[in-house]
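Data deposition worksheet. Section B asks for the primary sequence of the deposited chain exactly as it was used as input, without tags or linkers unless they were present during the calculation. Section C holds the resulting structure in token form. Section D is free text for depositor observations; keep each observation to a single sentence. Incomplete worksheets are returned to the depositor.
Section A, Depositor: J.P.
Section B:
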Amino acid sequence: MSEEQSDAILSSTSHLQTSTSEILLEPTAPVSAAEEEIIASDVIADGTQVLSHDGYDVQEFDLAVETYSRLGRTVVAADQKLVTAPALLRDLFWSFHKRAPRIDPVVPLSPAHGINRQIMEEIMSTAEWKELRETGTVGDALTSAMATIGASEKAIAALGPKTIERINELQEAAGAAERLFEQAEALEELASRADEEKAATLFKQAEQARALAQQNQEQAEEATTELEQTREERENIVRQAARQGLAEALEQIESTHHAIKAFSGGYNVCFGAGPGGGGGSELTVKEKIALAERIGKSKKLQMIAAMCGRFTRIALQQQKSRVKHPPDEITSITTGNDIGRLLPCEIALLADPQLEDLFFYKFATKQLLQYDLIGHEPEGQGPILAAVDSSDSMRDPLPGPLTSSGSPLCGLTKEVWAKSVLLALLAIARLQKRDFAVIHFSALDDQREPQLTIHRFPQGQGSPAEVIACAEFFYGGGTLFEPWMNEAMKLVDEARFDKADVIIISDGLTSIEPKAQGDWQRRRAERGMRAYGILIGTNEGAEPLGRMTDAMLPLDDLQDEMNALKIVFSV
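Section C:
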């Protein structure tokens, strides 16, 4: 039977479908957007889904596709290649997102989607799938989507063009056979109620539909047989490819976690400073996805985030290990059993064997006389100011071990290293609730006109967008010190507390005017300001920078960075 004949059969039943729908469907009131949000989706019962699921699972996947554009693009691209791909991606997402995923189709699977079951069984049996779930994909749409993309792209590519073509043929033929059998039954039903002349025509069309359905069914059986013959080989190839994709997804997820922590204050939470204790509040799923996509578009932000994680851990650990001044002021005499605070007369009891038992009795009952000591916490700490050179040379690679070709092995720029230090300092400011400000400084080379931009973070707090704006900002001009020094002194004067800490990061300067140096030293003394300078990859300007700082820290090689980091992160 030709395609034109098949279309004619479909057309002959359209009036029946239309009239039936008019009888069964009654007008309903339009549903508002608010009502749509609370109406739960139903399960997908068309034989396409391998995993057991409910309406909530359907909604979560749809929301992830809508929110995370990369997942949406992956679904579209996969659908254009493999007809069963959208259902496969949905099953993969659920396998990571659901708390207890299990292979249990709601209804029997279509022949083509039976291949999806084989793929899911192979993927869910791997150690990489289990490891990914342990990273926290359960209930997390972002990481579940990333894992889904990694597994699906590799698995579908591993099927190969020939297998993909057979699966598409199987789906098309099996679907056509099912529809034609249904049409044949509908035509026969119409014929049984029609007059003799029209019934003959309808019965003939039903016979033609069954014949065409039989042809499609035979094509589907041939494709099924061919796919079954290559099943074992296909499963091995898909499993290996999926494992590679899952391993790559794991690396991407870990990198994304670091990036989100770097730009949202998450590292403070790791060190016990959650909301209200110096850390940022938890981001929503949409905010995490938006942040991940924003960082994913910038190589600079990705490199800063990768460096920032290590720097922030060093910074917070340095703060944690600082020696705190113990209580030392005696306010009264009290009782207790703190050995370090006992009065000499109580300790003397141990010198007399007859009074030794009395000492242990008073110790056990906490009746020993001891000093009551208190310490004094600082009323407030000054701001942290970071002045970062934004000259064009900061784009150059950071000095480090060289490759055989003579290029730096580290591959990081001076700018990326400096911005990573900034984020670590911001973590300290957030932890200590100190005001933090960044001064990006540069100059127009021709006119020596100063270029200054200031980013402020009151008490170390800032939104991810504000932190990213600070990290991305760059002038690319020349180097001019005096303007930013004047601006820094203004910020110190505005500060609520004395003892500001100023960190200067530059890759070289020529000189500093004597007047600017004099004003700087005077304000340092008046406000108890401390200053540290990091000079990257050069000795140019080491003498003037050393005169205006408490410590000038040269960074000639990336391998020597730890000494500079420990000093700077002790602010």
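Section D:
The CA atoms of residues 265 and 378 lie 24 Å apart.
Residues 3-13+39-251 form one domain.
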